[in-house]
Amino acid sequence: MSNKSCDILFTGGEVIDGTGADRVHADVAVTGDRISAIGDLSEMQAGRKVDASGRVVAPGFIDVHTHDDNLLFRDPDMTPKTSQGVTTVVVGNCGVSLAPLVLGGETPPPPMDLLGNSGDYRFERFGDYLDALDQTPPAANAAFLIGHSTLRLGAMSDVDRPANAGEIDAMAKVVEEAMQSGATGFSTGLIYAPNKAAPTDEIVALAEVAGGKGGIYVTHMRNEGVDIDKSLDETFEIGRRASLPVVVSHHKCAGKENHGRSAETLARFDKALKGQKVGLDVYPYTAGSTVIMVDMVDAAERVIITWSETRPEFSGRDLADIAAELGCSARDAAAQLIPGGAIYFLMDEADVQRILSYPHAMVGSDGLPHDSHPHPRLWGTFPRVLGHYARELGLMSLEEAVRRMTGLSAEQFGLKDRGVVRQGAFADITLFDPETVIDSATFEKPMTPAAGINLVMVNGKIIREQGRVTGARPGRALRRNAA
Ligand code: ZN
Ligand code: CU
Question: In terms of pTM, does the model score above 0.90?
Answer without folding.
Answer: yes
